[in-house]
Automatic annotation (TrEMBL):
Membrane topology term: Peripheral membrane protein
Record gene name: pyrD
Designated name of the protein: Dihydroorotate dehydrogenase (quinone)
Cellular component annotations (GO), alphabetically ordered: cytoplasm; plasma membrane
Catalytic site: S179 (nucleophile)
Residues binding substrate: K71, N116, R117, M118, G119, F120, N176, N181, N246, T247
Localization in the cell: Cell membrane; Membrane
Family statement drawn from the similarity comment of this UniProt entry: Belongs to the dihydroorotate dehydrogenase family. Type 2 subfamily.
Complex formation: Monomer.
Length: 338
């Protein structure tokens, strides 16, 4: 029903406006008695063989929702009814910020892709914490970043603020230094500043009674040499894993009319490159750390390829928008047949 009826209607409207409208509709329907249970019965696949244990956490299944969809932790309880094994909120920054000027979200229909230049638009970490206090048992990842006005030399302080604020309300952390939509943010992926940032968070984490897993989200545009640096940094700082990958700035091979819009590209054009990065990290590190695979998962085949390449868990975003919630169920059912 989604691809035949709902998606064609949704795709008639501005992507950002329809995103907020869809949130309102999902929230509305889930307030109706028994509707949330209906969603669960349609989309959720429960089986002990789908469970995954990584960095001290138990995931009910390996299919998660990537950061960026529920930036402000407004709908994670309702989205969980679509069968996700975990949900990542954010990217959150210490202070609220509007992000980049609109229009900043573009569908590339013929490429089954999206270009965004949102710019970490969010209401700030404090507001998100208040919503996370209403968690009804959803396994939550907290994706954190820096404010646009914060210079890179002071970026560590922004990540520390988010870490302290979210600590009691998320199950794992994701350090986002790979978005292309905050000026100079990707410079923090360089070996020296990235090592310093991750080591600072690891040291703070070590002081906690029950430390939380810390993961790094990387760009798909890194060279092999830079990926080797990532492997070295993970080994040196002993963080818990890597999320591969964020959006790409490459527009190679696109056919849609709006393919020249600036921003980060997600969707099918990213499928192969993100899988290549996963395989490179897994092979070159001798699978020394867990990997969450994300980027261009639009089918069961895409999901299985990422797992075969070395991903322990996977995340959806653009594929969820184009294919609908049935994709989550289809992937989990396929995994049970493996």
């Amino acid at each position: 029903m989604y691809k035949l009826i709902l998606r064609p209607i949704f795709f008639l409207f501005d992507p950002e406006k329809i995103h907020h409208f869809t949130f309102s509709m999902i929230r509305f329907f889930n307030k109706i008695p028994f509707v949330s249970n209906i969603f669960k019965s349609i989309y959720t696949v429960e089986n002990v063989r789908l469970e995954r244990e990584l960095f001290g956490l138990k995931f009910k299944n390996p299919v998660g929702l990537a950061a960026g969809f529920d930036k402000d932790a407004k709908l994670y309880n309702e989205l969980n009814n679509f069968g996700f094994g975990f949900i990542e909120i954010g990217t959150l920054t210490p202070k609220p910020q509007e992000g980049n000027p609109k229009k900043r979200l573009f569908r590339l229909k013929s490429d089954s892709a999206i270009i965004n230049r949102m710019g970490f638009n969010n209401g700030g970490v404090v507001e998100a914490v208040e919503r996370l206090k209403q968690n009804k048992g959803v396994l939550i990842g907290g994706n954190i970043g820096k404010n646009k006005v914060t210079p890179n030399e002071e970026a560590v302080e922004d990540y520390k603020i988010c870490f302290h604020a979210l600590f009691d309300y998320v199950d794992y952390f994701v350090v986002n230094v790979s978005s292309p939509n905050t000026p100079n943010l990707r410079e923090l992926q360089d070996k020296e500043p990235l090592t310093r940032l991750l080591q600072t968070l690891k040291d703070l984490n070590a002081k906690k009674v029950s430390p939380k897993p810390i993961l790094l989200k990387i760009a798909p545009d890194l060279t092999d040499s830079q990926l080797m640096d990532i492997i070295d940094i993970v080994k040196e700082t002993k963080i818990d894993g890597v999320i591969a990958t964020n959006t790409t700035i490459s527009c190679e091979g696109l056919t849609s009319k709006n393919r020249t819009e600036t921003g980060g590209l997600s969707g099918k054009p990213l499928t192969n490159r993100s899988t290549e990065v996963i395989r490179f990290l897994a092979e070159k590190s001798n699978k020394a750390f867990p990997i969450i695979g994300v980027g261009g998962i639009h089918s069961v085949t895409d999901a299985l390829e990422k797992i075969d390449a070395g991903a322990d868990l996977i995340q959806l975003y653009t594929g969820f928008i184009y294919e609908g919630p049935k994709l989550i169920k289809d992937i989990n059912k396929a995994l049970l047949k493996e």
